[in-house]
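Standup notes, structure subgroup. Blocker cleared on the adenosine-5'-diphosphate input:
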Amino acid sequence: MIAQAKNLLKQHYGYDSFRPGQEKIIDNLLHGRRTMGIMPTGGGKSICYQIPSLIFPGVTLVISPLISLMKDQVDELNAVGIPSVYINSSLTAQEVNQRLALMKQGHYQLVYIAPERLEAPSFINTLGGLNVSLVAVDEAHCLSQWGHDFRPSYMRIPELIAKLHSNPAVLALTATSTPEVTKDICSALEVDQEHVVQTGFARENLSFHVLKGVDRDAYMRDYVRKNNDQSGIIYTATRKEAERLFQLLDSLEIRVGKYHGGMNSHEREEMQEKFVYDEIQVMVATNAFGMGINKSNVRYVLHYQMPRNIESYYQEAGRAGRDGGESECILLFSAQDIRIQQFLIEQSGLSDTRKENEYRKLQAMTNFCHTENCLQAFILDYFGETSPEPCGKCHHCVDDRDVEDVTRDAQMVFSCVKRMRERFGKTLVSQVLVGSSSKKIHEFSFHKLSTYGLMKGKTQKEVSQFIDYLIASQFLALSDGTYPVIQLTEKSALVLKGELKVERKQERQRKIVAASHPLF
Ligand code: ADP
Ligand code: ZN
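Run returned:
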């Protein structure tokens, strides 16, 4: 059967061989196994259900939230000789019925459905009676409450599958799944752990950079100018900021577009179209922009602010270089970004448990900004890959400063945290360490602690940044919530006992490296 699949790959798409993961997924499906596929953006997920749809006798349902993409996908499929159709909210009831009728008569191999359709029980019942061979669930992380984009209508999918008389194969697909989310998806869709096919998450053509303390406007302006023959996306955390940057670049006569939730759908479509056809060079956008943009030659993604979590970050950054060409992903970090994201989480109206979950994810994102190890490896580790190799091209991989032993400094911090009973945040801990005399310190009598003023020679900012580094390296942990307190970890206990060393890239050379780095 897999030989037949290969022939179809050649015949319809003109490709000679499958990409990693594709063959295993297709083989599973052809044997009727419920399967989950985790592949990076651009990895070739669509072919995993499109080819089986050509082999199966019945229809393949594709559940996808990307309504704006459906029409294009269906047009492309019809063009390569795969009869397809979509059903979503852009159709009238009459059109829906017409399509369903043709579906019953076996006119289509592939039918794309927006998940919202499943909220109508009558719709589920109608589908139940059809000969469905495969159900493909795109963006399957939307099924999990712990994912970053939970969609309640996805919860209807198990119900739909149960109603299908034809006992179809099932395929869940996503590009962003943590081990927690994978478990959720597998249990909801009854996929055996052994049928989870995961190809590497690594995007070899992307180089990641985190820059701190730069003048962001100036940096962005220079970067966009320097890359004026390239397509790029600039992401901001808020609409207001997107508007401001749009004005700023526009005043410099840069071909800039904007995209955010405050614009009407007509304006947004127009901007997207112009971007796709290279009439716009750079798009300034909030996270509203992306789900479904299919532009392959985006050469850079610049995050003007830190996004809310690693999942969103990797998805957004991953819109660069879908054509496989070398591309840059740059994040401009400032400590205020954390507060903006905390505010957005507070305003989100989520339940307390889900808010806590969001705070945990935000902390991981912050750690990404403070780590001094490979950035790509940090992301892969977050998504559950075991011992990822350094990428060799990110900000930290190309930073060849010497490493120094900072164990003694770390011990000072840890014993101070211990003396303060692990009940206070970064600001107060660093104030105690540098011996500052704030009101709060006297209130708690912290000036009487033996660790008070232990790091007098440093500024509070330096100590605070050192603590960020210790958190990012898991020597310290932060509690969840709006006012996180610093806590010791197993690693810090070992350091205090003298059984583990703490190392860090040398401070003094930092500026020299910065000046010679091509990104500055
Ligand atoms: P994803 O949905 O995982 O982001 P797509 O399904 O859109 O990725 O595929 C990305 C690109 O890779 C498409 O242009 C697709 O035609 C191409 N592609 C997929 N599979 C193969 C293959 N086996 N050989 C070569 N190109 C492929
Ligand atoms: Zn790296």
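Discussed briefly. Residues 509-518 have pLDDT under 50 and may be disordered.
Next: hand off to the docking folks.
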